[in-house]
Amino acid sequence: MAERILVTGGAGYIGSVVVAQLLARGYEPLVFDDLSNGHRTALPAAAKLIVGDIADRATLDRVFSEYRPQAVMHFAAFIEAGESMRHPEKFFRNNTANALTLLEVLLAHNVKRFVFSSTAALYGTPEKTPIEESARLEPTNAYGESKLLVEQMLDWLHRIHGLRYACLRYFNAAGAAGEQGEDHHPESHLIPIALEVALGERKEVAIFGTDYPTPDGTCVRDYVHVSDLAAAHLLVLEALKEKERLIYNLGNGQGFSVREVIETVRKVTGHAIPARESPRRPGDPAVLVASSEKIKRELGWNPKYADLETIVRSAWEWRKAHRNGYN
């Protein structure tokens, strides 16, 4: 009988790709999503969707009682770091308090495996790059703090209740996987914004800061193809049958500057992509690149789509085919 996996936020960008991979591997994913940021049409036809809020303890109890999942993969969260510095209370309520509600239900129903979509924002401004899992955890925004609090809860629940868990920390998911792509409203990520310029939906893309201590003066960031991220989530789900606690960074091994990303979008799309130089944003570190050596060594994870052009091209093909996103 197929293993039933509850996927919160499974109609979102990364969650939906994970759901598709779960189906392809013979699992039975059960998606729990309030559709505030997710899209019903992002889900494969074979995936079952329950529309609900993880703040709703009674509904979660009913779902766990009726469907009896063997594990939970948790993606439901607010993700905009900038917004978290204007409305931190929203992030602590949704990302932290609601995660505790989910974990309480998990324990009550004796579900022993939990995969957490964390973030490399836990590290704040790193002392060195690439960032390893042993680096100090000092978030510089409320978004990172809201995720760090969940990781701390998971550690205690593991020690006291024996909950097996995995935390995956990464920066920028990017690219598209077949029929599934990135469709945020409003959009704040560099690659889809640059693609909107190519489609004539925006006039220009902003470059925030050109005086960083990097080769071309712009910020350097890590981009990981969404399919590679999803594959890592499935790897740790299986590994938790043998392991009790897993913490991994996910990155593609190299960073790309803002100018490099824009230039790659120009090459892929054939459009000029006007760029406007703007002042730095507060709290933006010069370089954020995660080391993935640990998960490569221990679980054999290896990104299949590591080069930037492949990532951008997949996103571009999806955007051309979905001019209005999932709408």
Under the CATH scheme, which architecture of the largest domain would be assigned?
A: 3-Layer(aba) Sandwich
The major pleated sheet works out as:
7 strands, parallel
- Principal-axes shape call: globular
Average pLDDT confidence is 95
- β-sheet strand percentage: 15-25%
Count of beta strands: 13
Question: What is the fold-level CATH name, i.e. the topology of the largest domain?
Answer: Rossmann fold
- Number of structurally distinct domains: 2
* CATH superfamily descriptor of the largest domain: NAD(P)-binding Rossmann-like Domain
Strand arrangement, major sheet: 3-2-1-4-5-6-10
Structural class: alpha/beta
State the helical fraction.
25-40%
Low-confidence segments, given as residue ranges, are none
Number of helices: 10
Radius of gyration, whole Å: 19 Å
Report a brief summary of the structure:
By secondary structure, the chain is of the alpha/beta class.
Write the layout of secondary structure elements.
Layout: E1 4-8, H1 13-24, E2 28-33, E3 48-51, H2 57-67, E4 71-74, H3 81-84, H4 88-108, E5 113-117, H5 142-161, E6 164-170, E7 172-174, H6 190-198, E8 205-208, E9 220-225, H7 226-239, E10 245-250, E11 255-257, H8 258-269, E12 275-278, E13 287-288, H9 293-299, H10 308-321
Parallel strand pairs: 1-2, 1-4, 2-3, 4-5, 5-6, 6-10, 7-9, 8-12, 9-13
Antiparallel strand pairs: 9-11
Helix pairs in contact: 1-7, 2-4, 4-5, 6-8, 6-10, 8-10
